[in-house]
Amino acid sequence: MASRVTGFELVWNSNVIVEMRKAVAFYKPVGIPDGFHILGHYCQPSYKPLRGFVLVARAVETCCSPSETSDICNHDKLPVLRNPLDYTLVWCSNARSNKEMPTGSGYFWLPQPPEGYRDLGYLVTNKPDKPNLDEISCVRADLTDKCEPYCPILDGSSIIPEFPFWVWSLRPCDRGMLGKGVSVGTFYCSSCWNMGEELPVACLKNLNPMLPAMPRLQQIHALIEHYGPTVFFHPEEVYLPSSVDWFFNNGALLYRKSISRGEAIDAGGSNLPGGGTNDGEFWIDLPSDDSRDFVKHGDLESAKLYVHVKPALGGTFTDIAMWVFCPFNGPSTLKLGITSVAFSKVGEHVGDWEHFTLRICNFSGELWSIYFSQHSGGKWVDAYELEYMDGNKAVVYSSKGGHASFPHPGTYIQGSSKLGIGIRNDADRSNLYVDSSSHYELVAAEYLGDVVTEPQWLQYMREWGPKIVYDSKTELDKIINVLPLRLRNSFNNLFKKLPVELYGEEGPTGPKEKNNWIGDERW
After folding, report:
1. Helices then strands (H, E): number in the chain?
2. Residues whose CB is less than 8 angstroms from the CB of residue 334 and which lie 6 or more positions away in sequence, other chains included
3. What is the pLDDT of residues 311-328, one digit of tens each?
4. CA 262 vs CA 288, 305, 326, 492: distances in Å
5. Of 244, 233, 243, which is closest to residue 404 (Cα–Cα)?
6. Of 153, 132, 160, nearest to 28 (Cα)?
7. Could you read off the pLDDT of 196-223 as tens digits, one per residue?
8. To 5 degrees, how large is the angle CA 122–CA 128–CA 130?
9. For the whole model, what pTM was predicted?
10. Residue whose C-alpha is closest to residue 457's, from 297, 309, 270
């Protein structure tokens, strides 16, 4: 059994060896419930408000029913938890001088697990003495899963070059809707690590397929009504969202390869081909008559967020993915330093699906972070860094024309922000918005079985727009030719890194065909 602990006591802060902005504070969890054991210590950047958790564990007796798996209930196996046999000193902050610093030194200890057990974290002390063996527990190997470092927190290589040291955040390798890996909240540290190398620490594995911590149907609606963000579109946005049925009812057409005439789509999408894969046989397009331009601009009044609820990090978190549909994606604008150049066609496509994802902690029910999808990538933003309105409801900004999601207003560059060269994403507040806490439709929650009926259009795995090829080379050449000679080569190299949709793209696919429908977000 695991429990979440959010109380901490400071052990050591690296601000004694690095500047404050780069410093990291290391903590030991306190207030451990009776019978539970520490699995590792916690760290975070010093300049951020203290906000984090670690899991602690307790061994429990389980009684097997015939339906339970032998992975969960096997009384012949070793105890779930055991103390380490010893510790290895990984690094200490006074490694160069071998003298105690007046403000205290940091010592990083890796437990040596008994055979058949794995470490889930490190201990940090401010004294050179080894920790007691009962200060941390190792977990039986079959209850653990592989994890990976993903975000460097501390780089101490420049401080003591002969004794380099790095600290990373950890995440399970097996993530996504079907992933069993559970984040423990600990960190990984090393003086040498090669990409792809298996770590000496692991994460937990949830072997309970029932996922008892996941919200039931009524709880899903309560969470959305409580946390559902307001999505603001740019005040100059002309390509607004609509509901899917509005798009179908207003003349969207289904095309089939080698057949020139499109077929009208009914409101529920029941005549769309379901299942299979995106084989290029079908695609959707705007109406072919005079209503084409009208449909391009969407219908804000009908717009809603299409919600997919799924387990994350082994069912310890709930991901509420909110998808917005826009009939049309507008042309891109290229930013060149202080100059902006609007393309006439480049970047346009029919049928734009974008999303953001709320991650809810199943231990506490609190909003933990929001993932903002931004074209081919995106990023998680912690809840305390978000803007809010009406109490708990975050604000999401949808960029002009391209509808990428951002946490704050501003101009974001897809390219080189340092040089100020790339595709502009302008986001701002306006009177054009959709409140997802009331304007939403729950379209999928697979872990609930058949409780949620998925709409027919969701099973459409082909393209929501025709393939488009842009004459972007001509437009880009015109831009390059007006640049000073000394800048042309560097701009040519940069243009090669611009998103592929500038040069033409296959029509975008729907939510269920995206890899983050089953998998984790790209982070």
Report:
1. 5, 38
2. 340, 341, 342, 343, 422, 423, 424, 479
3. 999 999 999 999 999 999
4. 8, 27, 20, 40
5. 233
6. 132
7. 788 999 999 999 999 999 999 999 999 9
8. 55
9. 0.93
10. 270
